[in-house]
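Team,

Forwarding the record for the chain on the shared tracking sheet. I've put the sequence and predicted structure together so nobody has to dig through attachments.
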Amino acid sequence: MLANDTLSRVLMIDLTKNEFHVDDRTDIFETHLGGSGAAIRLLEEYCPEGCDPLAPENPIIFAVGPLTGLFPLASKTVAMFKSPHTGDLGESHCGGRSAIAIRMAGYGAIVIRGASRIPIYLSISADDVQFRNAKTLWGMSSSFTVGRVVRQNETHPGLRTIMRIGLAGEALVSYACVTAETYRHFGRLGLGAVFGSKKLKAIAISGKRSLQVDDTRKYRKLYDEIHKTAVSSPIMKKYHDLGTPQNILPLNRIGALPTRNLKEAQFDGAEKISGEAFAEGFLGRRLACSHCPVACIHIAALREPYEDEPYFYKTSMISYDYEPIFSLGSLLGISQPEGFLKLMDQVEVIGIDAMSTGVVLAWATEAMEKGLISEKETMGIQLRWGDYKPYKEAIRLIVNQPNEFYRALARGVEYASSKYGGEDFALAFGKNEMPGYHTGPAAHTGLLVGARHSHLDNGGYSVDQKVLSEKKLSSEELAQALIKEESFRQILSSLVVCFFAREIYRPDTILAALQSAGFKLDAGQLDLLGRTIHCQKMRFKLREGFSFDKLRIPRRIFETPSFVKDWDEQYISDAIRAVKKAVDDFPESASI
């Protein structure tokens, strides 16, 4: 690391005692860089084996990396915790200003343990933590309002982030999220519920430092090269112009867009909820994460008349991305863009994961079609494909949990289907709800074996489209392809480089950037570190009860034709066994 760099400083916060101190963890950051690499080491150290995810002992860990504040697109914060949704590894990445705020406050990581007796929020700045009473914020109906109140109360100068939970986190919904800067999230796997269990309503972090490098001229040259590539690359241009919703039409065209709970893989209303349709009819503005020149965040302006004042309108600004459009759009049969945006606004206000919410509602709709549940369970709500209004009411009840059925939905589709049936069409992989890619076996295998069961773990959907559509891979070859990509992505997430920039930050660029940040590694060491971090994550999962042998594969994925043809359950099962063997065979003593 660079001389006088604060990356190795870990802020330790105890919510039970309202105490904090700073540890120097050079040992972790020198060997694991930061981000996911540092976070898994800290999680292993501070998370007791077998602890309840909602117990005070479960730590919340935030970590950034050595490139944060130095190079473009190193703009993510990694959160790590034991997931209340899956019972094993919880990992979520968030953009916005969170990473730069933590780095400029003088920390590489923050570890939060214990639980408060009363609702609180944390105000963190350089060398100081204030424990603020948040009783008036607890129960506030909108997470947007919470952020606004915290922003008005905190006056620390510098770059600032405000993370907060909504009513879903307070209600301990197992897939509640944490919102940052209104439009960015620590989504999936239930970090919001862990916040709620600790009575932690929000965290405000501000920092005002500067970073120095040893060779300014060499650093500036590399910085300019990365920046120029980012703003001129056709790949990055698509993220700026349409954002991730540009995937809607191509995936629909090839028969890979999950529709009506994956009963189909093409949606007849795809044109109406495409990236092009939103850009032409609703785009209000674009936003960028700190130190990112791309601006992939797209915000829709939804103009609606007041019910009692027909000539007066309100305008809501609502973010939209591919995954929410799939989960709250095509998967529910909703082709009205206005209907989708109203659902998305509801999800944002209460602070719940959009992907899991859509998959849960899609299962419930089909379960109602098949007679597994009735209006008795839904409390009079008739869930129907394409009708957003009943879904909006159901989301509210998932948070309020007035009966056993909605308490089950609040724990996810894996749990709900185990209670009410319909497991064959319950679209969960490793207990986490599916994302929007029915491209073929690599996508589904990647979800099952990925460290956090995310489509971004190993890009299996890309293997389907770029490799398996051209040639057949053996199960062993598929497993190796997924492991190789996931290991490389451990390096990106340890540097906290946005995965959208993975074609810019290739190994040679990473090594050069790391040298500017004071790290001297070669290609072999980088490759070994990626494999090491990947296996450390998998071993934490295994420690907490995950089993390759007990993974449930939803039958629905074999019933609905996908983009890649001619694959079956045996092919996926063999690939899972190959991944298991690779993890088992990797030496625990491996290090750089």
